[in-house]
Design a protein that fits this description.
Mean pLDDT: 80
Order of helices and strands: HHHHHHHHHHHHHH
Number of strands: 0
Shape: globular
Low-confidence stretches: 342-379
Helix content: over 70%
Number of helices: 14
Distance between the termini: 43 Å
Radius of gyration: 21 Å
Length: 379
């Protein structure tokens, strides 16, 4: 039951992430780089910062936590992940929500699971390491099958149908961008791992395990925001789209939908950290939690792709291949659950502790306000 609760929380966060790109379709009269930057302010700065306050103990501040070590590397990995996040957006521009997320997140699932294990010195040819390696290989197989479904889709559709489903559809360019996005996006998992000292410091300060990793998430997303902001502003200048921000009549509409997209996107990592607290004593499931999140993102994104009619007009063979690819991606997650032993649930917050955490979040906002500026100057 404990494992199912953790997986359910991760699944809810995954569904939110897969839904985050739907509100963007409601943004009006802005170029791609403009709405990508504004939604990034919410997804990578505002909501991660608010979430990080839950990981601060009473009387403490985020600056004190970040001083525990690993903050610089978390930001660095965040900057690299930002390249993945940037190309991730481009992959959906060229391939659509379903195929773009499938290729990017499938690749991210494989590398994001394997790389932290390798850096930790895990032997991939025995025990849990072998399970990880097998899961990654199956994941890559699923990616190949989904990619094949994409090629069939391109063959079965006329140019008019392609443009109707995805305005800037470009299969070859989209596949290359999506693969790059997946590899670089795996740096997010490395950033979380690098911030382990910060998470441990939060736990030592009395913060519940549900929230202890949230300050690290903010560091990684902050690094990612820097990369995306530089690129988007450069594109604003190149494409002469800076005047998008001066279109006052659409600001209220666009701001609402960008904020909605941002909070939905952030929920995947908020849910991941909460879900992992229920899997803390299962090494296999903890190692696979990243892969589980990405695989669920792929599944839900294709559900949205069907709803948005991105696969409309394709043959039954194409749909069959797509479904087979998704099933292959899901198989490693089933394997990891089967490998896990029933374990006692980690200590949960009591009602009193929950109230204390909420109070800590409010008090830490005051303690952190001045420290944030000092910390940014430091890096």
């Amino acid at each position: 039951m404990d494992i199912l609760i953790g997986l359910l929380i991760i699944a809810i966060g995954s569904f939110c992430q897969s839904s985050s790109y739907v509100p963007i379709k409601k943004v009006k009269e802005w170029s791609w780089e403009s709405f990508w930057l504004i939604q990034g302010v919410f997804a990578w700065l505002v909501f991660p910062f608010l979430g990080s306050l839950l990981g601060v103990s009473e009387g403490g501040s985020l600056f004190e936590l970040w001083g525990a070590g690993g903050a610089g590397m978390s930001i660095l990995y965040g900057i690299l992940w930002g390249v993945g996040g940037l190309t991730f957006g481009l992959s959906m521009r060229y391939l659509g929500v379903a195929l773009g997320q499938s290729i990017s997140l499938g690749t991210c699932a494989g590398f994001g699971t394997l790389l932290p294990a390798l850096f930790a010195g895990t032997n991939l040819f025995e025990g849990n390491g072998l399970v990880l390696l097998l899961g990654v290989c199956i994941t890559l197989a699923g990616i190949a099958i989904i990619g094949y479904a994409g090629s069939l889709r391109a063959q079965n559709m006329s140019e008019e149908e392609k443009r109707a489903a995805v305005k800037d559809f470009a299969l070859t360019k989209g596949l290359l961008v999506a693969l790059l996005a997946g590899v670089m996006s795996a740096c997010f998992a490395l950033g979380l791992d690098a911030g382990t000292p910060i998470k441990e410091a939060a736990l030592a300060g009395g913060v519940e395990g549900l929230y202890a990793g949230l300050p690290v998430i903010f560091l990684v997303t902050f690094g990612g925001f820097l990369t995306n902001a530089i690129y988007c502003l450069q594109q604003n200048v190149t494409n002469k789209s800076m005047n998008d921000y001066a279109k006052g009549k659409v600001w209220s509409n666009n701001l609402v939908f960008c904020a909605l997209a941002g909070v939905l996107w952030y929920m995947q990592f908020f849910g991941l950290e909460m879900g992992k607290s229920f899997l803390a004593e299962s090494p296999v499931l903890l190692a696979f939690s990243w892969c589980i999140l990405m695989a669920l993102n792929v599944t839900f994104s294709n559900v949205w792709g069907i709803i948005l009619k991105e696969w409309k007009g394709v043959s039954a063979k194409t749909i069959t291949v797509l479904v087979c690819g998704l099933l292959v991606l899901i198989f490693p997650q089933i394997l990891s659950v089967k490998s896990a032993k029933p374990l006692k649930i980690p200590h949960k917050a009591t009602p009193a502790a929950s109230v204390r955490v909420q109070g800590n979040a409010l008090s830490s906002l005051t303690n952190t306000a001045g420290d944030i500026l000092n910390y940014i100057k430091l890096f």
